[in-house]
Amino acid sequence: GAVVSQHPSWVICKSGTSVKIECRSLDFQATTMFWYRQFPKQSLMLMATSNEGSKATYEQGVEKDKFLINHASLTLSTLTVTSAHPEDSSFYICSATDDPIQYFGAGTRLSVL
Amino acid sequence: GENVEQHPSTLSVQEGDSAVIKCTYSDSASNYFPWYKQELGKRPQLIIDIRSNVGEKKDQRIAVTLNKTAKHFSLHITETQPEDSAVYFCAASIETGANSKLTFGKGITLSVRP
Fold it and tell me: How far apart are CA B45 and CA A5, in angstroms?
């Protein structure tokens, strides 16, 4: 199957700082990437749909100014958690679509102190 | 919007036995149903999927069945092995191209007892 790379895999930051997470499709071009948040022992909650060259579409309840998404190329999307707070601590996973199959990155565990 | 329900939340089987995991969906327009396996601390991996134009699909020890009328689909694992232990997520979507969003069930933790 296709390979999606996500990094960093783990990040610890101080409250108030911003953290950028990268998601890359390594062997295919993805016009669409998705960003999910996963709490322990819970399902994947879609945060936003990222389209190359256009603004992301955010799910209801997700603050777009808090979670900035950029999809500048067909192989790279980034999620920036701005002014992170402890409640933003979570597991963030991206996926890239080789339509209709979504291939997932390995996830980023964010811990905000 | 689509709502995918997955029950129960945990399932324990003896090695060698079969396991069946069921999901229901709400939107009759949904036409693509993938199953993902997520081992602890790892990424979700697609294990099998089915489209609404077929009722069953099989891949070695894994099969998926779809009942469009009842709006439910099931994952069947035969001859279970300890390495099948993981969280399994079902999902549903309406295929509209690359923007097709998946709605996931809450996941079921399968434990295979040696």
Answer: 14
Say if strands B10-14 and B108-113 run parallel, antiparallel, or are unpaired: parallel
Report yes or no: B33 and B66 within 8 Å, Cβ to Cβ.
yes
Specify the amino acid at residue A56: A
Q: Helix, strand, or coil here: B105?
A: coil
B67-93 confidence digits (pLDDT tens): 999 999 999 999 999 999 999 999 999
Q: Assess contact for A79 and A88: CB atoms under 8 A.
A: no
What is the CB-side half-sphere exposure of residue B33 using CA atoms within 13 A?
35
CA distance B24 to B8: 12
A58 in contact with B, Cβ within 8 Å: no
Q: Distance from A64 to chain B by nearest Cα, in Å?
A: 18
CA angle B63, A44, B36 (to 5 degrees): 20
With tokens 């939107």, the residue in question is B27
B4-32 per-position pLDDT tens digit: 999 888 999 999 999 999 999 999 999 99
Closest by Cβ to B98, choosing from A93, A97, A105: A97
Q: What is the DSSP letter of B34?
A: E
